[in-house]
Amino acid sequence: MKSAETTVITFHLEFDSRGELMEAMQTLKSQFGFAGEMYFKKNDDGTWRLTVLSEKRFKESTIQKMPGRVVAES
């Protein structure tokens, strides 16, 4: 029996406030059917970074439309 290989897509978004970050997390779950893991932390400059490890592939245009700033994609 072959196992299905799962590709994980990683991208990072940066926000000016924790509230904006929480809204983006909710948007990923409710509007885009997010499946995977998310982590966030407060940066030294006071901004917040959300790291998204997604089992679902998002179009680049969808990621660009997300609230916050895309700071890295892989």
CATH architecture: 2-Layer Sandwich
Strand order of the largest sheet: 2-3-1-4
Order of helices and strands: EHEEHE
Q: List how many beta strands DSSP finds.
A: 4
Instruction: Give the domain tally.
Output: 1
Query: What fold name stands as the CATH topology?
Result: Alpha-Beta Plaits
Give the averaged pLDDT, no decimals: 84
Q: Regarding quaternary structure, how should these chains be classified? A: single chain
Fraction in helix: 25-40%
From the spread of the alpha carbons, the general shape counts as globular
Kindly describe this structure:
The protein is of the alpha+beta class and 74 residues long. It has a single domain, classed as ACT domain (Alpha-Beta Plaits), CATH 3.30.70. It is built from two helices and four strands. It has helices at 18-30, 60-65, and strands spanning 9-15, 36-42, 48-54, 69-73. It has a four-stranded antiparallel β-sheet with strand order 2-3-1-4. A hairpin with a 5-residue loop joins β2 and β3. The radius of gyration is 13 Å and the shape is globular. The termini are far apart.
